[in-house]
Each structure stands twice: as structure tokens, then as C-alpha cells.
Amino acid sequence: MAAATVETEWATSSDGTRIAFSRDGTGPVLILVDGAMCYRDFGPAKPFTDALRDSFTVVSYDRRGRGESGDSSRYSVQLELDDLRAVADAVGGSPCVLGFSSGAGLAYRAAAAGQPMRGLAGYEAPWVGRRGNRDYLADLDRLAAEGRGGRMVDYFMTKMIGAPFFVPVMFRLMRATWSKLSAVGPTIRYDARVMGGDFEAPVDELARITVPTLVVWGSKAAPEMAAANARVADTIPGSERRVLEGQTHDVKPTALAPVVRDFFA
User: Fold this and answer.
1) Considering the entire predicted model, what is its pTM?
2) Which residue blocks in 113-222 are alpha helix, DSSP H?
3) CA 155 to CA 139: how far, in whole Å?
4) What domains does the chain contain, in order, with CATH numbers?
5) Closest by alpha carbon to 160, among 24, 8, 35?
6) Residue 198: which H helix or E strand, with range?
7) Could you report the per-residue pLDDT of 126-150, keeping only the tens digit for each?
8) Are strands 57-61 and 96-100 parallel, antiparallel or unpaired?
9) How does pLDDT run across 162-190, given as a tens digit for each residue?
10) Fewest beta carbons within 10 Å, which of 28, 31, 121, 219?
């Protein structure tokens, strides 16, 4: 049976930015934190809500600059931490949190900053270092200043992830998808800042996490991704780890949802 349509609700962050969120299901609150370019209508939020709504009140939100959420002319990682806290306060204060990719990095950093959480799970936070000598932040800021959202998507896919040059070309042929990607292209620089710019794990921060934490990655993760998440698990005191057989960075709900459900239970 399909889930009923859920309404958009609003939280107000510390700088007055309105953050759009929705909730669905019953049980303890579980907030989903998206990675780069994803939001409630584009990415893992919907399939994971469907997979977990029978066990949790699943809350998904549009990170600033995406979907229905607002943005501001000034950005800092602290503002994104404040956004997550505003959503948590709006739905009851001390939730479970599940982050994907750079959203996992954001969730880890929120926990390290002392944000109240009942439990935390992160899937493949990409603290994998930079490719070559590129200054991601400078390049992305320049493209944003030039208003080249689509070019920022190209840069992310080819220079940051290392995908072949033809991958963004293929996405351009899928016009509806490309329209969504290019619209949120400017927020890629936000994710780069969440990941520290150099994409090296902030071990001093992670060592401060006291929330029960599960670190997860796929058996088909690139070696540098697997090594990065093993380091995260080694650094967070008392954390647990799981390696999901056959999974890539694009993890399937059928593989991750049962593990998350068991951990938070």
C-alpha cells in the first residue's frame, strides 16, 4: 500500500532561513540527512522513508539551497548544523539520525558539536582526500560566482568523484534530471565545506562523539572510501561498523534499512 501524501512543514534556522521538512510513519523520530545535490524529491529520502516508516517517524528535509528550503548569502558549516538542530527541535528534540555520503559527514559533525541524538548512523562519509592538487573550494566558488551551476555538476562528477568525462554528458540528455542537478549545483560548495575542503576526516572532532554510532559502508566501495570509513569507525569511541555485501555508494534500502532498524532498536 502506497504511503499517503505528506505535507511540508517548516523549521527556522538560526539565521532566519526557513528549512522545509516532512515526516511520515510511526515510532521514534529518525531524521534523514542527504548528501550532495539530493533533497526530499531527488535522492534516497523517498525510498528510505518507505523502507523505514513502519518502524520510525521518518523525517526528511531539504538542506539549505535545495528543494523548498531557503538559503542566505552567507554560508558556514555551522549554519548547516543549526539547520539540522532546527529540524530536530521542530519534531521533538533528540532523534535518531541517518546520514548519507556528505550528509553522514554533516551528521557526524553535528554529533561531535554536542547536538542531542538518541543514535547516529552514517553511510560512506566521503573523507577520501582530494584528487591531485586541486583546490575544490576555490574552483567551486569561482564557478558559483560565474553562475555556472551546470558546470559545477560537471566539476563534481569528473574532478571530485573521478567519473569519466561522458557521464555528465549522459545526464544532460536526461533533461528533467539535469534540470534538477544544475539547480542545486551551487550547493556542492556547501558539501565541500562540510567535508573540510580537503576531504580528510576531522579526527579530533570525531573523537568527541558520545552518541551511540554505527558506521556503514559497502563491500564494493572504492578502497579509499572503505579505508576512510574504517578510520571513522576507529576514531568514534565505542562505534559499531557494518560492511554491506554487494553494496556501492548508491546503497539499496533493502540492504541498509534492516541494519539501521536493528541498530536503533
Assistant:
1) 0.95
2) 136-145, 149-155, 166-173, 175-184, 188-194, 203-206
3) 9
4) 9-129+200-264 (3.40.50.1820), 136-191 (no CATH)
5) 35
6) none
7) 999 998 889 999 999 999 999 999 9
8) unpaired
9) 988 888 889 889 989 989 999 999 999 99
10) 219
